Amino acid sequence: MRLTGLRELTRRRGVSTLLHVAALLAAWLAVGAYQTRRHLPSSQTPAPAFELVDLDGQRVSLAQFRGRRVLVHFFATWCGVCKLELPSLRSLHDGLANDAVLLAVVQDSDDAEAVRRFAREHELRYPILLGSDAVIAAYRVGAYPTNYYLRPDGSISSSSVGLSTKLGMSTRLALAGLW
Fold first, then answer.
1. How far apart are the C-alpha atoms of 79 and 86, rounded to whole Å?
2. Cβ atoms within 10 Å, residue 5
3. Does the pLDDT of residue 31 top 70, yes or no?
4. Segment 48-67 mean pLDDT
5. How far is 79 from 6, CA to CA, in rounded Å?
6. Which of 75, 96, 119, 121 could, after both became Cys, cross-link 100 (CB 3.0–4.6 A)?
7. What SS3 state is found at 46?
8. Measured between alpha carbons, how far is 81 from 120 in angstroms, rounded to an integer?
């Protein structure tokens, strides 16, 4: 094969690879937009306020984290995808800077002792709040896991549904601090 033919073949493969990557990225963005279509919009308006009880019986208010980037993670102990995501959440929490916080809101909060056992079994060290129907409805959570990323001013930066990686969550949380 002549050198120019080899160059042309290499160029075509490169263009083909770029087109495949672009198609995958477009599909990923479309699926994400579809999954979050009913979520609260990203805007400059504040995320819905809440005050919930943690596993130690302490009242925790979203307002007490004003000035920090916040990941509000909605999950259920029965959710298989939520369980797959736990190592990423643990790792994310362990590496958070002082200006960021992870708050997990559990859907199946009617049995606090069962949630405590779940947290111990999975070595969860981040705050777990016992969710309420009102908070879950206010955030329009329709599937688990659901994540909302809040800016330091308390407004919604973005949201996601489904399995997330540490890199994905870290990136969205970092972006929540930029605007």
1. 11
2. 9
3. no
4. 96
5. 51
6. 96
7. strand
8. 18
Burial class (CB in 10 A: 0-12, 13-18, 19+), 179: exposed
In a 3-state reduction of DSSP, which class is residue 53?
Answer: strand
Please name the residue ranges forming H helices in the chain.
3-35, 80-94, 112-121, 133-138, 166-176
How far apart CA 26 and CA 137 sit, in angstroms, is: 30
pLDDT, one tens digit per residue, over 61-72 is 999 999 999 999
Number of H helices and E strands in the chain, helices first, is 5, 7
Within 8 A by CB and 6+ apart from 70, the residues are 62, 100, 101, 102, 103, 149, 150, 176
- What pLDDT does residue 45 have? 75
Q: Are 167 and 43 in contact (CB under 8 A)?
A: no
What pairs with residue 159 in β-bridges?
Answer: 148
Question: pTM value?
Answer: 0.80
* Sign of the C-alpha dihedral computed for residues 145, 87, 54 and 66 taken in this order: negative
The single-letter DSSP state of residue 76 is: -
CA angle 58, 39, 130 (to 5 degrees): 20
Rounded Cα distance, 149 and 164, in Å: 13
pLDDT above 70: residue 116: yes
- Reply yes or no on whether the pLDDT at 34 is more than 90: no
